[in-house]
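Consortium newsletter contribution from the modelling node. Members have asked for a concrete example of what our holo predictions look like. Here is one, prepared for the manganese (II) ion complex that several groups have been discussing at recent meetings.
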Amino acid sequence: MVGMLMLIDAASLWYRAYYGLPSSIKAPDGRRAGAVRGFFDGLAVLARKYSPTGMVCCLEGNWRPQWRLDLMPGYKADRALADGSEDAPEGLDEQVAAIEALLPALGVTTATHPEYEADDVIATLAARTAEPVLVVTGDRDLFQLVDDERERKVVYLARGISKAELFDGEAVATKFGVDPRHYVDFAVLRGDPSDGLPGVKGVGAKTAVTLVNTYGGIAGLKAAAAEDGSDLPERHRKAINEAADYLDRAVKVSTAVSDVPVPTADATLPGLPKDRAKVEALAEEWGVASALKRFNEAIIAQEA
Ligand code: MN
Ligand code: MN
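And here is the predicted structure:
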């Protein structure tokens, strides 16, 4: 039987859970608990729907690594607080701490690195396996990993966990107009305000698609811009040449690193909780015992 590794962008999942569930869901002590409950219910739904044989929750070791900031000082600037931390909505941080404590107690493998984003850890674990991979994320950057030949797909959470959409190469091409291997080129040319990528002057989404597909991504576009007698329209040639430095930096910033030095992760699906006492204590503290039970049942159903 061919296995399937599910790589979870954990932060995407808890953000969707936080916004997708009513704020009236509370822990016994009155703190908001929707993100904790929704996170584990979401994992259960995903496990039942896609039947993975392995699972790793990839954590955001560094949401805005210094090396990316060195390349592009405005990277994710709109989402940063004065102290450099991410502007998180009310009551999310403590729920994240609970989720991060519950995962190992439940026996779910996690992977993270203090100098890299979850994007990079996911790309690394995907690069290390020959098995089909399903990446669960709400981060558009990860469309760059979609690869039909190697059976890499993305479950995109933008519209919520229950409305998750499965993207293969054709679905990426249909939504964005470019092949997944050119997704980064497309995003860099068009720009991505939520990540602080300004894009190239005068190039909107439609032009970005045409340029990428006509010239073969940014590498081909730069070659065409440098070549006398290429058919690249003069206004684009000028814009591409003027943006040469931006293009080089933005491609590096936007390309997920696939050789992060994270230890080999044992992706085996968890069985019964590894640390039952801890799971029970946290379940009681957060009022999430039934969500954790649903999660366990969904995982064990996959193993049967
Ligand atoms: Mn990300
Ligand atoms: Mn990203």
